[in-house]
Specification:
The protein is mainly α and 23 residues long. The protein has 2 helices and no strands. The longest helix is centred in the last third of the chain and has 12 residues.
Length: 23
């Protein structure tokens, strides 16, 4: 997962955080 997370941009990270928040 580390290699995948390093490829994410700040925008992608924020999108994931919003998605998790809406679960």
């Amino acid at each position: 997962m580390g290699s995948t997370s390093s490829m994410l941009t700040q925008y992608d990270i924020e999108e994931v955080q919003e998605y998790c928040r809406n679960l």
